[in-house]
Structure formats: C-alpha cells, structure tokens
Design a protein that fits this description.
The complex is a heterodimer of chains A (652) and B (148).
Chain A (H helix, E strand, L loop, with lengths): L1 H29 L2 H4 L2 H24 L6 H6 L6 H7 L4 H22 L5 H25 L24 H30 L4 H32 L10 H26 L3 H24 L12 H25 L14 H31 L5 E3 L1 H22 L13 H23 L4 H25 L5 H7 L2 H26 L1 E8 L3 E4 L2 E12 L3 E12 L2 E6 L2 E5 L4 E5 L1 E4 L3 E10 L6 E10 L2 H16 L4 H12 L1
Antiparallel strand pairs in A: 2-11, 3-4, 4-5, 5-6, 5-7, 7-8, 9-10, 10-11
Helix pairs in contact in A: 1-3, 1-7, 3-5, 3-6, 6-7, 6-8, 7-8, 7-12, 8-9, 8-11, 9-10, 9-19, 10-11, 10-13, 11-12, 13-14, 14-16, 15-16, 16-17, 16-18, 18-19
Chain B lengths: L2 H31 E5 L1 H5 L9 E7 L5 E2 L5 E7 L4 E7 L11 E8 L4 E9 L8 H9 L3 H4 L2
Parallel strand pairs in B: 1-2, 5-7
Antiparallel strand pairs in B: 2-4, 2-6, 3-4, 4-5, 6-7
Classes of the chains: A alpha+beta (652), B alpha+beta (148).
Amino acid sequence: MFPEFGQFSLILAWVFAFLLAVIPLTGVGMNKEALQRTAPALAWAMFFFTAVAFAILVRAFLNDDFSVVIVSQNSNSALPWYYKFSATWGNHEGSMLLWILMLTGWTVAVTVFARSLTVELKSAVLGVLGIVSFGFTMFVLFTSNPFARLLPIPPTDGSDLNPLLQDIGLILHPPTLYMGYVGFSVAFAFAIAALITGRFDASWVRWSRPWTNVAWAFLTVGIALGSWWAYYELGWGGWWFWDPVENASFMPWLIGTALIHSQAVTEKRNLFKSWSVLLAIFAFSFSLLGTFLVRSGVLTSVHAFASDPKRGLFILVILAITILGSLILYALNAGKIKTAGKFEFVSRESFMLMNNILLVVIAFAVLFGTLLPLIADAFGMRKLSVGAPFFNLVFNMLMVVLISLLGLGQLLRWKKQQLKSWTGFFIVAIAGAIVIALLLPWALSGQLHWQVWLGMSLVFWTAASLIRLLAEKTKNADSFVTGLKKAGVGFWGMWIAHLGLVVATTGVVLVSNFDLERDFRMAAGESVEMSNYRFELTSVDQVSGPNYSSDKGTINVFRNGKPIAELHPEKRFYQVQRNVMTEAGIDGNLARDLYASLAEPLDDSRQVWSVRLQVKPFVRWMWFGALLMALGGVLSITDKRYRRTARTGASL
Amino acid sequence: MNPKRKQRLILILLGVAGVSIAVLLVLFALRQNVNYFFTPSEIAAGNAPQSQVIRAGGMVREGSVKRSDGSLEVRFQVTDFASDVDVMFEGILPDLFQEGEGVVVIGKLDENKLFTADTVLAKHDETYMPPEVTHALEQAGHPDTMNK
C-alpha cells in the first residue's frame, strides 16, 4: 500500500502547489492581505506532502519493494544500503521527484529566512514558486510517475543500478547540482515578484542576493563533483568533455556568475537593476533548459537515462511558458525601473559590465554549440555534432579576456578611478607575471608551451592583483592584521572566490598541457618507465565484491628507485547487469595524480593486460579552486547587513 | 556629451564590441570543428568526404573484431545491415564496446574507405541506443528499429 500513499501524497502536494500559485497572487492583485498571508502555510503543506512522497520512495528502495517499477529497474537486493538509497535518484522518475523536493524545500526556506520581507513581496515570491512547483509536480504525476507498480506478480529481484552510478559521486553529485539548479528559482521568483508588485527599492536586491549566492555555491560544488566523478569513475581520467549535459549545468553557472556580479552593483550602486532582473530570469530559464536537455533525451549523453518524447514536450512547454511569460512581464514592467548614478569608463561599474557581457556571451556561445545539432536536425540537415575543440577555442579565448580584465577590475573603485598612481604596480606586476610564467614552468619541466605561458601569465597577474588588493584594504588601518580583520566578509568572500578562480585556472592550464598518457602492454612482473616514474605491475588478482567480481591489479610506482605509491586499478564485472566497469587506481597529491587503468586482458589467464598509465599534474587544483569559489559565495552572505534585516524584521 | 549619454554610449559600445567579437570567434571555431554524421551505406556509396573528421555509426558486426598481437591496434566492421565500413582504431576500447552492439566512431576515411578512428563511443548501458545509430539503422530499413 505504501507506494499508493506516496502517489496520493504527491497529488496532495500538487493541490497545495496549485493553491499556492493562485491564492497569494490573487491577494497581491486584489490587495487583500488576508489572502496573501496564506502563502507560508500553503508552502509548508506543499513541502510536507512532497517530502512524504519522497520518503516513501526512499523506503521502497531500501526495503527492496520490487513491485515498484523503478525499484525493480534500478535496484537489486545485493546492493549495499547506501546505493539503494542513492538509487532513488539514479533514474528519471526519482530524480525528478528529488528536483521537486528541492524546489519545495527552497520555498519553505524563503518562508523561514525571509521574515523581514513585506507581506506583499513575500507572498508574491512564494506564489511564483508555487507556479513552478505546480508545473513540475504535474510533469511528474502525468509523465513520470515514480510509484508505478508491476502488479500482480512483482519480480523477485531487481535488475540493479547501472554500475557507473554505484559510487559516492552519485550519492552527492545530483542533490548538490539540483540544489543549485533549483535554487535559481528563488532569485527568479524575486525578480518576477518585483515585476508583479512594481517595487524595486534598494532592499529588494538585498533580499535576493543571499539566495543567488547560495544557489550558485551549490551549483559550483555540484559541477565540480560531477567533473571529479567523471574523472575517477569513468576510468579514463577525463575531467570535462563539453558533453551536452555538462553544458546544461555550466550555462546556468555562467549566467549565475554574471548575476552575482550584477546584483552586487545593483545593491551597492543602485545601477543595472533591470539587467539584474533579466539575468535572474535567464539563470532560471537556463536551469529549465538544462532539465529539458537532460530529461528529454534529445541529445546523446552519459546522462540520458531513456528518451521519451512526451516528457521532452512537456518540459518544453513549461520552458516556453516560463521564458515567454517572464519576458512579456519584463517588457511590460521594466520601464518602471528607475536607475540613477553615473560612472566613468575606468570604474568598477564598467568592469563589472564587461564581466557580465563576457559571461553572458560565453553562455550563449556554449548554448549555440550545444543546440546546433538539434537545430540542424530540425531543419532536416545532415546530422552533425560540434566537437570539444569548438568549445575549447571559444571558451578559452573569452576566458583569457575575462581573467585579464579581472586583475584590473577587482582593484577599481566605484564611479571613477585614476590609474596614474598605479602605473608602477602595473608595469612590475604584468612584466613580472609574463617573465615568471615563461621561466618557472620551463625551469621545472624543461618544456615550453605558449598556452602555459599565456595561462600562467594571467594566473600570476591576477594573483599579484589579489595581493595588491589586500595592501589597498589595509592601507589606512593601524596595522596589516587589523586592516584584514576590518575588511569585512563581503570583501573576503570576493577575495576567496577570485583566489578560487586563480587556483582552478592553474589546474586547468597545467593539467591540459603537461599531462602524460600512454597505453602499455604489461604482464605481471613487468615494469615500464614514464617521465621519471617507473610503474611495475606486481600482480593481477581475482577478487569479489558484494555484487561484482573483479580483476584487481597492483602497480607499484617508483621514482628515482624509491617506492612512492601503490595503485589498485580494477576491472569489475557486475553480475546482474552483466556490465564491465573500469575502476581507476589513483594516487594523488597537490602536485600530481598518478592514474592507472586496466583496459583489457590480452591472454586467457588474465595476467597480461593493456594498461593505460597517466600522470596528471595539478589536476586537483581545479576542484579545490571550485570549492574556494563556493566558499567565497557562502562567506559573503554572512555579512551583518543580511542578518540585520532579518533581526529587525523579526522584532516587528 | 552629457554624462548620462556618455555612459549609455559606453554601454552600447561595450555590448556591441563584445557580441561581435564573440560571433566572429564562434564562426571561426565552427568552421573546423563541426563533424557530420554518415551511415555505413552512405560511406559505401562514396557520399562521405575523405580526410575530414566525420562520425559514423551502426552496429559492430558479429565476428568482425580482430586484435593484433603485440600492439593495441584493433580492427572491426560497423554495419547498418545494408553496408559495412572497415574501422581501424589504436588504443583502448570503451568497456561497453561489444560485437553486435551500437557504436559511434569519430575519425577520417582514406581512399580505400578504411575508417581510421581516433574516438570510439559505445552505448552507456543496456537499454540505451545512441540516436545516431538508430537513425543509421532506420535509413537502411533494418527491421529491429521499425517495430519500436
């Protein structure tokens, strides 16, 4: 009976979403405060019933209830409990239910944390979130019912979770990514609510900003987790493929990054208001577009679970309504937004503007490359695909411009900045960066790559600028340390996020140009040399896990005759799905990863293998950089001014 | 020029400059990096260009996979059940590469219609078929895809 309760609960959630979409917004339209005040209670009810439905689905997975279709298709009694748990969202239906759970979760978070909002704005925000929940709950109920049953005779066991998904990465990556995706719905709802109510006062963006930052931080971590997962779990050491679904998460991230910067200008300087509203609409639209691309199966991708045109069409309709509806609303009301204040060309405002233009242009270039195959298909042209070199070229060129400007832009004051007093610093920093970027990698590796030179020049220049920024901040303080303390979390958030970009860029530049990859034919007892490292395949043993059997290699790595690492690459065979999986053996530190994968056995006794060995310098810096960025985003919202509004609001 | 106008001019110029550079860049990058898809029948009929990176897809013909001793070179045939393409690949095949299963190869065709692949993509799980492969089989009128 439980699955039916789950479905019933989801229907109730849908009803409450409908009420939330209608009643508070009607209250706003008719200016009736009693109607507006229903919003928080309705939001809680909607969240509660969604959570009950989700809990029941989790229960079905944990209890091996194979009468539920998606449990029988994606789980197995031999699976460890934590993979049964994560299998809940390792399929289309369950992951959409998780999507809704997050959405309703964000909705109640607004009722909890945004106490200081005026009743009108708050109910409008919650109402807009209600509309979105209504649409997506309907989508799940009508096209992707997670509680569908296999009755009367359920299978005795399930057909297991795809081995690729049996991993800690799958437990963490989708929920984190969804928190980010869905989190932009709050910024979107604030933007739409502002358009509906016509109130664009300074406090509006101050309320909206923390939500944007948190969503963006989640998305950053989610993307980094996805990249890390692909790196070690797909078994071949790739960390970014420009896969359509990676792009689908990267586009909202780019727009979200633009939005964070634009909102900063809006809050501090009361400028770029309508632009911030538009970006908030775009950020969420890109999130929806991502959902469409992933869920409809229109694109070839690792993430395409199964394609169903009905689902694609449904999301496409939601997407069209969202984009068209909000853009019409924007066109009608954006004229009411008043901006004041002026700025010179050399000012923080205009560099923030350049940042925004570049990020939006990158996002649309990625969008173009991602959709071109679909467009060609729709017009009946020959099927085509856009290769990773396209994305690399466009993205890298634009990022070079963006990062070069960042070094200057982050130093500038609002309104107007005289550059004359900084001439000396610029000459030293830029010349120093260019020289060090040429000499240091050459001294360490003995190789010259112009890409490394360019990339590291940008890294050193931006790092110099970050240091200069500290000097500027502490210039008028009693001492360096008190100056740093006084700088404020807003400043530190920005500083750490930009440091994160520097760290991530370092990783990308170095691993892209200095990584080594070679395939060897190795028998047990043999060893091969690769760039100062000696890899010895000691043995290959047959071992068995809970639901798989495996050939497990032991590779000892020596440097200058000293043992430095032991790698355990595996070739696993999952019995239920009859799938073969490559598990890489990795030894990592900050300077490099040693990466080994067993490819294929070349003899019958399974003792001779083709083996891929890789050395990946600084690869971890990319993910640490992303974590720093996310940390910066979260840190800056701990600022007193966000809490102050909350406290004064609570006392009213 | 009054400051307000000047400011607006800055905005517009920046926007136009950014967008036009980006458009040029995109067009330039696109020229070399779009790969067209050809079915085995089209390749057999000589419709596919040589020495240009293309994609081809179909099923790996049963019994066609031949590995060489001593190196990682492997040869196999991709078929749409109307025509076959000979493919040569050196390196490590994806885990889910199997005879009788769908595959997409990316690489170049030589004058003898030998396809030298630098990338081999297999399907990701049991139930998933790359749309391009489905398309290739449909084009060749293969019955398996017709009753789907």
